[in-house]
């Protein structure tokens, strides 16, 4: 019931409601390993633009699955990936342990494998694949842009950032960044430095800092920090940005 009420709030805020999509479990190779994810396919006939959907430090839980379904409802083939190999945290301590336990090289390989998987799908537009993530996943969404020159768009929701020009020069994808002004981990100063470094390199970037929001303000499970109005605005900006970059 809570999810339904939240969906209605979003629909009213956006003056439109798009039906969500069901997902199916898929598997694909990442190096010598087989990894799993959930693939959400839009209604209608493809090919569709596509998104790598990257979870928070909690893992591939119901909230992230809901985001994948909503994005498919907007017309994107959405692959919600699982960097934790089936594990999902229910406490901050467990989430921290799982996040720290992901080897950097394995995460890089898994992200590349997710991109390659989408690129091989017959109903996906190969030149219109993007990445989106929240919290830990927001940082990984940026990592996809750093590592994949053909990525077409990236949405970073309060994820870790980079400022080294040598790294940022590799980015070709336009970027939308959504951040909280009260975030103590990724501060407004961090965001501004990232934005300035990108702009100095002539990269396409759009940033919104919500002054009264903290970290993870888009997730209603964050009882103390969830901000419904800022979340609705962030979703609107995401929909507009992805429409302009992946549907053109």
**What is the average of the pLDDT values?**
92
Q: Which stretches are poorly predicted, pLDDT < 50 over at least 5 residues?
A: 1-19
Order of helices and strands: HEEEHEHHEHEHEHEH
Please state the overall shape, judged from the principal axes of the Cα atoms. globular
Your description of this structure?
The termini are far apart. Helix 1 (2-14) crosses helix 8 (228-246) and helix 4 packs across helix 5. An eight-stranded mixed β-sheet has the order 1-2-4-3-5-6-7-8, with helices on both faces. The chain has helices at 2-14, 62-73, 92-100, 104-119, 136-147, 165-168, 188-200, 228-246, and strands at 23-30, 33-40, 48-54, 77-81, 124-134, 153-157, 175-180, 205-210. The longest helix has 19 residues, at 228-246. Helices cover 40% and strands 23% of the residues. It is α/β, with parallel strands linked by helices. It has a single domain (21-246), classed as 3-Layer(aba) Sandwich (Rossmann fold). The chain contains eight helices and eight strands.
């Amino acid at each position: 019931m809570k999810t339904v009420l939240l969906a209605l709030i979003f629909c009213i805020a956006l003056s439109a409601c798009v039906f969500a999509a069901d997902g199916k479990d898929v598997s694909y190779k990442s190096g010598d390993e087989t990894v799993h994810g959930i693939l959400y396919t839009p209604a209608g006939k493809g090919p569709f633009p596509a998104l790598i959907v990257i979870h928070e430090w909690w893992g591939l839980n119901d909230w992230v699955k809901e985001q994948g379904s909503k994005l498919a409802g907007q017309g994107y083939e959405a692959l919600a990936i699982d960097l934790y190999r089936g594990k999902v945290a229910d406490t901050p301590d467990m989430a921290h342990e799982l996040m720290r336990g992901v080897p950097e090289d394995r995460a890089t390989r898994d992200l590349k494998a997710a991109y390659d998987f989408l690129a091989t799908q017959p109903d996906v537009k190969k030149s219109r694949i993007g990445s989106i993530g929240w919290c830990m996943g927001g940082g990984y969404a940026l990592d996809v842009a750093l590592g994949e020159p053909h990525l077409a768009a990236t949405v970073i929701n309060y994820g870790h950032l980079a400022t080294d020009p040598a790294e940022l020069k590799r980015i070709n994808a336009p970027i939308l960044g959504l951040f909280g002004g009260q975030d103590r981990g990724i501060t407004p100063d961090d965001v501004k430095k990232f934005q300035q470094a990108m702009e100095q390199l002539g990269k396409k970037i759009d940033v919104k800092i919500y002054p009264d929001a903290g970290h993870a303000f888009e997730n209603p499970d964050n009882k103390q920090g969830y901000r419904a109005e800022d979340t609705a605005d962030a979703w609107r900006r995401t929909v507009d940005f992805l429409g302009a970059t992946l549907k053109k």
